[in-house]
Amino acid sequence: MKDADPFVQGLMEIFGRDPSLKPASVSKRAGLSDSAIRKMFEKPASSPKISSATRIAQALGMTVEDVISAAEVPAPSHRPTVAIAGTVGAGARVPLF
């Protein structure tokens, strides 16, 4: 989602990676309304107030910078790979099919 606010995009990535996280419970822990994070997800191009972003990040045990960088780091691939040597290059990893 390229038009999303970087914080909201990172937040969406964090929630997508951890299904045990619930927007309402994290919003409550942050001292915000139950629907605060859900509303951010509904309008991802809107930027949250820095105070809200800070409180949400702290509720997740993170900094605002950590949340933003979560969107920049690709999710780990769950496809198995194997290290090989030879003409492909020593230490290269190729997916198993």
Task: Write a short abstract of this structure.
The chain has helices at 6-17, 23-29, 36-42, 50-59, 64-70; strands at 81-84, 92-95. It has 97 residues and is mainly α.
Which key phrases capture this entry?
2 strands; 97 residues; mainly alpha; 5 helices; 44% helix; two-stranded antiparallel sheet
Main β-sheet, spatial strand arrangement: 1-2
Query: Approximately how much beta-strand content do the residues carry?
Result: 5-15%
User: What ranges have pLDDT less than 50 throughout 5 or more consecutive residues?
Assistant: none
Structural class: mainly alpha
Q: Residue-averaged pLDDT, rounded?
A: 85
Assign an overall shape. Answer: elongated
Rg, nearest Å? 18 Å
The helix-strand sequence is: HHHHHEE
- In whole angstroms, how far apart are the ends? 29 Å
Helix content: 40-55%
Q: Number of DSSP helices? A: 5
Biggest beta-sheet profile:
2 strands, antiparallel
Number of strands: 2
